[in-house]
Amino acid sequence: MSYGLGVDIGTTYTAAAVSDASGTRAIPLGRDVVVSSVVFATEGGELITGDAADGESRKQPLRASHSHKRRLADPTPLKICDVVRSPALLMAAQLRDAISLATATRGRPPESVVLTCPAVWGPYRREHFSEVPRLAGVRDAVIVTEPEAAAMHHSVERRLGEGEIVGVYDLGGGTFDATVLRARRHGMEILGTPEGVERLGGIDFDDSLVALVDQRVDGEITRLDPADAAHARVLLAVREACRRAKEELSAATDTVLRLDLPDGTREVTVTRADFERAIAPQLALTTDAFRRTISSAGLRAGDLASVLLVGGSSQIPLVADTLSKAVGKPLRAGLHPKLSVALGAAALARNALRRSPAVPAAAHRSAAPAHAVPGRPAGPPVPAGAPTAGMPVHTNPPAPSGPSAHAGPAGPPLPGIRPAASVDELPVRRRNFTAAPPTRSARRRNTAVIAAAAVTVLAAGSITAAVVLTSGGNSAEPTAPAAANGTSTPPASSGPLFLHDGRDVAPFHSMVGSEANWAGTALTADGKASQQAVAVRPADVNGSKDGRQVTWTGKGAAQFYVQNPQGRLDATSYVESGTLTFDVVVVKAPTAEVSLAAHCGYPCAAQLNATSSMRRLPIGEKTTMRIPLSCFAGKGLNAAAVDVPFLVHTTGTFEAKFAEVRWEPSGTTGSAPVIPCADLS
Ligand SMILES: Nc1ncnc2c1ncn2[C@@H]1O[C@H](COP(=O)(O)OP(=O)(O)OP(=O)(O)O)[C@@H](O)[C@H]1O
Ligand SMILES: [Mg+2]
């Protein structure tokens, strides 16, 4: 089937998505759906990308390039081991591998390719960027701005109304873009002048954290010499630890970094408050830029219907706090903050395809328009008012066990782009993407990865949408009697417990998430958490403060869930006749659909409709609900790798207390009757 390909080469991550008549979905470029934007130059001069480059760069950091997108059009030459490699050349290698992977997995090259660039880039940078598809041998790529692509994705998901004006706040790894767009029947119209901060993103927040940690270790990090290979490895590991810590702080209120420094191992605790203090001035720059772009369009914040939060760094809770104070408008976090640009680009690529004959992109001859924003693609309708929940972020994903090849793992090895002193000296490579069908085993491998991680966007009204995707494996079976904080002893006969005696059972954490922050807010030590649309506090169910009372305010889609951020739980032995069992007291009946879900790393997830079951319960009385795990398995749950065993979601108002959330093996006695799957659909 012909398809369009969207590729988002970000400063820190690269993502790709395909779109065809059956929908739009991300394609995994490695073990995860997104891969690091790192390029590694082998001694033979080949440029490798993706997971393979990531792995090699840890061993030989001086042969690797990170964040080169920021260096595009920079007059200072970018050198890897004394050889000049233009950023465009490095990005071309990334594009080449993304296209090769798409070609290998789909069995044919894409018919159209859309690439994205920051909206703040002027003509000079865009001209340099237009070298990227040329160097990759793609002759007819369309280039659109990242916020336009993200808004396109949003319009597919949420159906922006004709004429609706939205702001896009895109804070990624290296750039901040602020844009105001009006939805038009045939696409997006930019209003006013996009503003931004060219060198502001996640890597700067990583730097802030490195500086903070450096103070705590008395300057040991500053004393490292980046030109020394051993020190460079340490520095890379420190940066990596800071990036992870930063992401963890979006869900937790503090985190501990363990750093292996030349003078020994040091442990440093950083709180979210420390981190927020460090980055607050940078975030103030983003809101200033956001206000400027609104004024440049002759508008006021009140004229915006909403603000779309795009980019991985928009998951930092302080972003939503700062922005909602600044603009006072509803914030809509995308379902896939790191993927929405690629997904929107793919949808645009498919639109372009529907208007032109299906000829592989690599064979097109005419120059692409510099800027084209085709309209919203057709596809299965997203139900009005459909739930728009995202899956909780894996703040500390398990070490993946998937294929470790570079971004083009299928088929015969792809020849590298030759090193050259500058773009001008590069021979223009005309790759023929129709060649080299994948080997059967590579095809199987790719299919498996796709099956494990593709995101079907056009069905995104589902609660199972993911924000961050991790590969499976690393099952972690917390043997049942592991009680949280050693304060409670679960019944010996039970299966794994997730919530017991008012506490999370390690390694599970209770979280709330909503459109304001799908990354999720962890409960504080006193058992509380809140976002605009959902709040949780301790409550009495069977005894004193042994449960959690969750209040959905009706101010948007929101969820309460229990997640293991470190691994996956194997439920296979429970699936045949075991149950998800929990105590529930309905305080206020739900006014909208209530979904009950379990996740196993998106899109392996299953969602049941618990609306009537909840509505039937007597108000204020405790009931034990037992739901066969086979109902979840029947809806697509991979029971061998469950990371979220319990998730309740609604868009309306609802209030309930939950306690003793667990899996029970078959034959557990003394429990309430099991609810048939038919009552949950
Ligand atoms: N939960 C999180 N909390 C805070 N930051 C996060 C979280 N998840 C990802 N990030 C950060 O988001 C950044 C990556 O976002 P994204 O993939 O949107 O950027 P990019 O596309 O590589 O960059 P750009 O669009 O600026 O070129 C990284 O710095 C990453 O650490
Ligand atoms: Mg980006």
UniProtKB/TrEMBL annotation:
GO terms for molecular function: ATP binding; ATP-dependent protein folding chaperone. Keywords: ATP-binding, Chaperone, Nucleotide-binding, Stress response. SUPFAM superfamilies: Actin-like ATPase domain, Galactose-binding domain-like. Residues 506-663 form the ExoP galactose-binding-like domain. This is Hsp70 protein. Belongs to the heat shock protein 70 family. It comes from Lentzea albida. InterPro entries: ATPase_NBD (IPR043129), Exop_C (IPR041443), Galactose-bd-like_sf (IPR008979), Heat_shock_70_CS (IPR018181), Hsp_70_fam (IPR013126). Pfam families: Exop_C, HSP70. Residues 360-376 have a biased composition (Low complexity). The keyword Ligase does not apply. Residues 49-71, 360-444, 473-496 are annotated as: Disordered.
